[in-house]
Please model this.
Amino acid sequence: MTTQTSPEERASQLRALAEQASSCTQCGLSGGRTNVVFGYGDPDADLMIVGEGPGQHEDEQGLPFVGRSGQLLDQLLGEIDLRREDNVYIGNVVKCRPPGNRDPRQDEIDTCKDYLREQLRLIDPKVVVTLGNFSSKLLLRTETGITKLRGRAYEWWGRFLIPTFHPAAALRGSASVLEAMRADFGLVADIVAGRLRPEEPTASPDAPAEPPAEPNSFAEPAVDQLGLFR
Model:
């Protein structure tokens, strides 16, 4: 998985990466931002959560998931005895807010992908949770929607990836959306506790027969682990 550096060294490298991102002007999103929202949490986390991009509140505060969606996310984490300051790291595909909360464009993703790649390499989580259609489709390289993707832990580059609904969907949707998210976070708890390992994937009846993420083993060098963004 990651290179054999100490947690302290990796945390230092992550801070340096965040400092580099804070002054990035490589795409048009930089012109409209208030703050770069690099990420927040434990740099040695077992769980990394990946959303699409910052919203208005996140842009204002420079932290991911700080509005009502963030409150619900904290609640779901608390239900499995996790919190964002301890064994959890939260980031996004892009680090600056897209205007009007639109989906990030391909050139913006391409510009920002190295930051996410390095976050994954340095944090080296046991499990990645993608929130919503956008980040789930992107990281799993699929056009399958989140309703069919969720409910399963996918083997993904030597770890698990669990796609689930975005908290905003639960806030505006039916109670069944929240219950589905609770089930998905139950899978997270199993992985963090060591009850589920990459050689023992779990599936639901409506999930794709095979995970769209490709290799079953992590044979590639760590630096190439997000070649799937190509």
Remarks:
- Residues 200-226 have pLDDT under 50 and may be disordered.
- DSSP finds eight helices and six strands in the chain.
- The first helix runs from residue 7 to 22.
- The radius of gyration is 16 Å.
